[in-house]
């Protein structure tokens, strides 16, 4: 397995994996997520590939087929005047093909992202996990991540 920056030839495979992630989220929150959709379209992915501040890394097998990805965003802190300035690499989405899980691909992708964050001079790597996605929470805790903040909601009756 190799990890590299995503290329246009990876887009259709990334779309398939985005569908797998969406289904996980739709199962957890059917009130928010629409089954059978994806977070990005082909044209949006093509545009994203050119953005240095939003790198997409892919794990590929021996046939150079994408088996996992990590969408990242370089963020400059502070968001307010009461914070020390620093850079952060936010993992917007990380996925391993459901048929390739258990092969440490997610761990390799996460380690790769951590190394890229260090190379970019980042202070931290962050991400969000939906409540109810316990397998993701356990995975990230195993990778050494700790809860930084919690976002809470109150759903209004309609």
Automatic annotation (TrEMBL):
Q: Under the GO molecular function aspect, what terms does this record hold?
A: N-acetyltransferase activity
- Domain named N-acetyltransferase: residues: 1-158
Classification via PROSITE patterns: GNAT
Q: Which Gene3D superfamilies match?
A: 3.40.630.30
Q: According to the UniProt entry, where is the signal peptide? A: none
User: Which InterPro entries does the entry mention?
Assistant: Acyl_CoA_acyltransferase (IPR016181), Diverse_Substrate_AcTransf (IPR051016), GNAT_dom (IPR000182)
Q: Which CDD domains match?
A: NAT_SF
| Keywords, in A-Z order | Acyltransferase, Transferase
Presence of keyword Translocase: no
Which Pfam families does the UniProt record give?
Answer: Acetyltransf_1
Annotated PANTHER family: DIAMINE N-ACETYLTRANSFERASE, GH14572P-RELATED
Q: What is this protein called?
A: Putative acetyltransferase
Which species is listed as the source? Blautia wexlerae
């Amino acid at each position: 397995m190799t990890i590299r920056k995503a290329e246009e030839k990876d887009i259709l495979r990334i779309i398939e994996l985005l569908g797998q992630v969406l289904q996980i989220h739709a199962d957890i929150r059917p009130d928010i997520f629409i089954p059978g959709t994806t977070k990005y379209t082909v044209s949006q992915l093509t545009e994203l590939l050119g953005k240095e501040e939003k790198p997409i890394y892919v794990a590929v097998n021996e046939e150079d087929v994408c088996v996992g990805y990590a969408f990242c965003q370089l963020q400059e802190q502070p968001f307010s005047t009461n914070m020390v300035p620093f850079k952060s690499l936010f993992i917007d989405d990380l996925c391993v093909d459901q048929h390739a899980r258990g092969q440490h691909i997610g761990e390799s992708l996460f380690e790769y992202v951590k190394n890229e964050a260090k190379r970019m001079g980042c202070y931290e790597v962050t991400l969000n996990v939906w409540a109810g996605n316990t397998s993701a929470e356990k995975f990230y805790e195993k990778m050494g991540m700790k809860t930084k903040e919690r976002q809470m909601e109150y759903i209004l009756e309609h």
